[in-house]
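Lab notebook, entry 423. We have the chain sequence and a SMILES string for pyridoxal-5'-phosphate, and the next step in the workflow is to get a structural model of the bound complex before anyone spends time on docking refinements. Request logged below.

Task: model protein plus pyridoxal-5'-phosphate, output structure tokens.
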Amino acid sequence: MKESPQSLSYSQLGQRASEPVITDLMHRALENSELLSLAAGFTDNITLPVDLVRRALERLGNEMPGAEYLQYGTNRGRAGLLIEVANWLNASESEAAPEPFTAESVFISNGSQQALYLAMQSLCDAGDIILVQQPTYFVFLELCRGLGIRAVSLPALADGGTDFAALSEFFLKLKTEHGAARIKALYLNSYYGNPSSRSVPVEEKRALGRALLDHALHVPVIEDAAYRELWFDHPYPAPSVFSLPEFDSLPRLYLGTFTKPLATGLKVGYGVCSHPEWMGKMLSLKGHQDFGTPNFNQSLIENILAAGEYGPHLERVRANYGEKAKIMGVALEASPLRKLGWSWETPLGGLYYWLRGPEGLDLSIGSAFCEQAVREGVLYVPGDLCVAEGDPKNFARLSFGSLAKEKLAEATERFVRVAVAHG
Ligand SMILES: Cc1ncc(COP(=O)(O)O)c(C=O)c1O
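Result returned:
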């Protein structure tokens, strides 16, 4: 095709759009099989539900001869899947919502990523502020940047918890500088969060709810629970914001997904919203985008859940990631990294190790460390991408999600070699 010389006049959104770092990381990993990627958040092929999908497909063929599942579905999602999602949440041991979750407050999205976008589009204009944790999900930060939204980190302690002692001053400053009306929502990554694998303890969640109210910030709270199902030994005991009275008066959006725990390729997620009008707005935007998540993918998932096959599948998935976390942990502990001033917590679920390098070490994209890692044949996510303010730069996220077990130790050792070389 002949290249067009004409330069286009883009919208502000178009002008702000730049290739997400995640796409680049995914490309590099897929294109070069020699490169071992501890970067992209892919899941493990060996636990993708091939047999479950095959069986569900057979059942769909037998039970629904009209092939309705290959037809367009509805914008909000399949009625049966909405019920399955509500049932799934109601069955969670740690939930004790005053009212059970009902299908009416659930919608299905193209992964929880789409729901995040709908939430931001429906709430924020360019220049608005979203409160986030430090660190937080870097694709969410990119999404905000693309929309011209300013993500601002809550004051954080060294362990990633909220620094409540600094919170009042922080809120005061933010309100004085930008006006309270600019602060539009709190985004919480609360179960084995990306990138730190940290979960938010119930006392911290409650205190966050109280702090918002005490500072007259009656803003929506978006709880992203993308990794909640991926615990290793036992589920994280904190309930969601739907079960905590501190959040009763705040609009809440809880986001879950069937990608990481079931099949990333089906790309189906869900939202539960406490505020019907806000949910209506998000659904109108979804109508503009796609007027429905692929009905076929939803049918498969609905069928797997209805057959009671999701729970046993999750047990296999958890065992696999638990084992992989151990493999990476052993490789890290056997290395001289701790002696060299590196530190990390052992994850209890999720897909990531969050490594803190020595003070002053630069691990950002384009740094000597990062370039050497690529030459050494290993990719990681530079930690500064996961912090709204782009600093500190001495953190790295290592994912044990996608690499085969046999390759994990080798990839970790490659990373360690680079770290040792940088002393
Ligand atoms: C914290 C978090 N939220 C949301 C998502 C989006 O997931 P999906 O769209 O696959 O459901 C991801 C994916 O990596 C994530 O890490």
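Notes for the group: Residues 68-306 form a domain with the Aspartate Aminotransferase; domain 2 fold (CATH 3.40.640.10). Worth checking against the assay data. The chain is about 40% helix and 10% strand.
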